[in-house]
Amino acid sequence: MSAPIKRPRGRPAIPKDVQRRRIVEAAFRAFERSRYERTTVADIVGEAGMSSRSFYAHFASKDDLAAQIVEEYGAELLGHVAEILAATPDDVPAHVDRALGAWLEILPAAAIDLERLGGDAGRRVGEMRRRIVQELVDLTLGYMVRLHGLGLVPRPPVRAEVELLLTGIEGMSLRYYSEGRRDELLALRPVLSRLLLVGLG
Hints:
The chain has about 200 residues and is mostly helical. It contains nine helices and no strands. The longest helix has about 30 residues, at about 120-150. The radius of gyration is 21 Å and the shape is elongated.
């Protein structure tokens, strides 16, 4: 006689990538309701409908979660901008505006009231933001050198010019998002595009 078939008990396991995504999305909701420093891991897992054990399988701490979120969305942002700038433009202003649009669409995902983060989370996020801006500066400089080689701009900009522009736009964008002024910022897109074209051109 064959042994009876054992049926799995309880619900099927949630795939790791789905668990992680649920935790990240729950963290955004929890951070929106309460300031970052007031939000606990218990708040996040309660929002996600998961256990603390699941949280710690993905993140070492709440600070680690915040830093990983910024890193993840920073990489996504860099990827989108790099893809846009890699194409040869037939219309430089429209091309620059598309890159700026990618920035403004993805940035809110990393704007967890970053200006108020303190301690280890603030330090790690600050370092990542600086690294992301420096990589954007590198991408922009390479793009402008290529445009100059194609005869589309009179000169490539100096690195300090690009750093000043991008650091200013990044800081302003994060401030607007953290203050709940997303619509105001998006309305400034034509102004920011013109500023980039004049400053880089």
